[in-house]
């Protein structure tokens, strides 16, 4: 009972902070997710550094990831031009060159995991800016629309809740037993149906997308969010750990909380460009 209360309180505070910062203003949105990017990369680097012959520089990868988020934010917000990305390219080049002088036993591991931290974590979070900032042709200016990035998290939370409730009561057929034995097809379908129902509500209150576009949005998040969860499960299985961390009581670490988003965000960007919303 104590663990349930702790998990519930942490979950409520976590959701409240995410919703509040995204809705309040773009500056708070940027500060929050630049910080989350850095903390998630820090956790990732700490986990892979436990492997033999791996020595990822936490500070360098954290700075690189946070800078990428803020650089893309400034570019999408039309504050800076493309020159804003030059320091980030310098960081990537430095990550490659520094291994020449460190004399590590297996520098390929350091290169691979350092770049993975940017591709797997930093880039997806940075793409939230593509979802949040849009050019208003009528006003010839860039507008901040928090509903689209917030909707990604809403659909993830709804899908997780529906999958858990349905899966725990009638889940019999394993979805991907080799990687995640507890996930079931019944739970995944239940979570997807609930997400679609919520997408109809979103279409009613936010008609800047059609009903069918909202349904496609929800399904994209459900499918790729599930794959994102499985990717992190495979990552943890390879490392022999249950949770990526314990920073969030009852909820594991940062990777545990954002694993679904790390694949869902880039998938949503592709989806929305595909339907020519942007």
What does this 3D model show about the protein?
The protein has 278 residues and is mainly α. It has ten helices and four strands; from the N terminus they run ααααααββαββααα. It has two domains: 1-136, no CATH class; 146-278, no CATH class. Helices cover 73% and strands 6% of the residues. The longest helix has 29 residues, at 211-239.
Number of domains: 2
- Physical arrangement of strands within the biggest beta sheet: 1-2
**In whole angstroms, how far apart are the ends?**
47 Å
Share of residues in helices = over 70%
DSSP strand tally: 4
Structural class: mainly alpha
Number of helices: 10
How do you describe this structure in short?
With 278 residues, this protein is mainly alpha-helical. The protein is 73% helix and 6% strand. The chain has two domains: 1-136, no CATH class; 146-278, no CATH class.
Keywords:
6% strand, two-stranded antiparallel ribbon, 278 residues, two-stranded antiparallel sheet, 4 strands, 2 domains, globular, mainly alpha
Architecture blueprint of SSEs:
Blueprint: H1 2-24, H2 26-48, H3 58-76, H4 86-102, H5 107-126, H6 128-132, E1 133-136, E2 141-144, H7 147-170, E3 174-176, E4 180-184, H8 185-205, H9 211-239, H10 254-274
Antiparallel strand pairs: 1-2, 3-4
């Amino acid at each position: 009972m104590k663990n349930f209360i702790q998990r519930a309180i942490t979950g409520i505070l976590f959701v409240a902070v995410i919703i509040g910062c995204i809705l309040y203003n773009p500056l708070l949105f940027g500060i929050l997710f630049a910080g989350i990017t850095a903390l998630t990369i820090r956790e990732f680097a700490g986990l892979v550094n436990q492997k033999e012959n791996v020595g990822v520089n936490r500070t360098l990868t954290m700075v690189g990831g946070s800078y990428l988020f803020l650089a893309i934010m400034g570019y999408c917000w039309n504050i800076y031009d493309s020159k804003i990305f030059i320091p980030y390219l310098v960081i990537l080049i430095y990550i490659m060159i520094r291994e020449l002088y460190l004399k590590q036993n297996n520098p390929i591991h350091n290169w691979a995991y350092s770049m993975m931290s940017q591709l797997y974590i930093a880039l997806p979070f940075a793409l939230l800016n593509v979802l949040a900032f849009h050019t208003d042709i009528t006003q010839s200016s860039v507008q901040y629309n928090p509903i689209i990035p917030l909707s990604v998290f809403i659909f993830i939370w709804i899908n997780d809740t529906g999958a858990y409730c349905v899966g725990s009561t009638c889940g019999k057929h394993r979805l991907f037993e080799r990687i995640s034995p507890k996930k079931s097809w019944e739970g995944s379908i239940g979570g997807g149906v609930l997400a679609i129902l919520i997408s109809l509500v979103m279409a009613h209150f936010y008609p800047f997308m059609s009903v069918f576009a909202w349904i496609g949005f929800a399904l994209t998040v459900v499918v790729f969010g599930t794959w994102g969860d499985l990717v992190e499960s495979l990552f943890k299985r390879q490392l022999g750990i249950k949770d990526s961390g314990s920073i969030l009581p009852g909820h594991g670490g940062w990777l545990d909380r954002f694993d679904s988003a790390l694949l869902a965000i880039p998938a949503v960007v592709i989806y929305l460009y595909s339907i020519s919303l942007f």
